[in-house]
Design brief:
single chain, 292 residues, alpha+beta, six-stranded antiparallel beta sheet, four-stranded antiparallel beta sheet, 12 helices
Length: 292
């Protein structure tokens, strides 16, 4: 599997012709990079990565998987990678509809434990075999259209039989707290230029403010206000690359003070807005490596 990934990767991060599947190969340790990722699973085939989600520092390596059931801001870096022994990983963006359909075909679960919206688990051999079968289509691109969905479904089935299953089921359950948090996150993302009050978000989730705050932080690793601020700054990063105008970008994402915006931007990304935009224009910006 490592050899197949290395053969098909182009640079550090590669989006493959197989829908939802991405590959990562790193030949030297990377500095921390902040990314906003869709619900996904990352399986490490070689090397070690470290991810900071809110206040949770998570380290995972060979034959382990990191999974998230919600849109997640996180800072990650590769810790172990060498030229002749690179970090190698496979990422799969989770198809919510396909997962929901699979759950209806599995035996029901009477109770679902409360879980965080992300976590690490050891990868089982059946999951590796299912993933390897999906990766094999990279060698036969003419077969991707006909076979990839069935093989992706098998990977998701094995995820629902893995230690990640309670988290995924919670995110899919209509009555589950994690599913309601996902709905709130979607509303926040739809109104990225607006700061929504915690009480309004709690009402949307059908929870009291204390309960909502607790469940939201468990799902994302941060408070609702921290999450909104991080989302606004990620949206700002896209805008500032296009315009190079920090003040205009600050107002566009809801900040009233450009100086406060610049301070918080530098705190999150480790660089000022102007210097970050210049890096992008010079082709030396972030790799978009995300959590893979």
């Amino acid at each position: 599997m490592r050899d197949r990934v290395i053969a098909h990767v182009d640079g550090i991060h590669t989006e493959t012709p197989i829908p939802n599947l991405s590959l990562g190969v790193v030949r030297q340790p990377l500095i921390p990079e902040t990314a906003f990722c869709q619900p996904m699973v990352c399986v490490v085939l070689q090397g070690v990565k470290q991810v900071l989600v809110g206040g949770h520092l998570i380290r995972y390596g060979t034959a382990h998987s990191f999974a998230s059931a919600v849109e997640l801001p996180a800072t990650g870096c590769v810790l172990e990678a060498e030229t002749d022994k690179p970090y190698v990983a496979v990422g799969l963006t989770l198809d919510h509809a396909m997962l929901a359909n699979l759950v209806t075909e599995l035996p029901p679960v009477s109770t679902l434990p409360q879980t965080m919206g992300f976590g690490v688990a050891t990868v089982s051999q059946p999951l590796l075999e299912a993933l390897d079968s999906l990766l094999a289509l990279l060698d036969r691109p003419d077969d991707i259209a006909a076979l990839s969905k069935g093989r992706e479904r098998e990977v998701l089935y094995q995820l629902l039989r893995s230690p990640h299953a309670p988290m995924l089921r919670q995110a899919l359950s209509v009555d589950g707290q994690l599913a309601r948090i996902r709905e709130v996150i979607q509303r926040i993302r739809q109104q990225v230029d607006t700061s929504l009050s915690v009480s309004a978000l709690a009402e949307l989730a059908g929870m009291s403010v204390p309960s909502f705050h607790r469940h939201f932080k468990a799902a994302t690793g941060m408070s609702p206000l921290q999450y909104q601020k991080t989302l606004h700054l990620h949206a700002a990063r896209k805008l500032i690359v296009a315009s190079g105008d920090a003040a205009r970008t600050a107002y566009a994402v809801g900040y009233e003070s450009p100086s406060q915006f610049s301070r918080e931007y530098a705190r999150l990304f480790g660089i000022s807005p102007a210097r970050d935009a210049a890096r992008f224009r010079q082709g030396a910006g972030p790799t978009a490596f995300g959590l893979v």
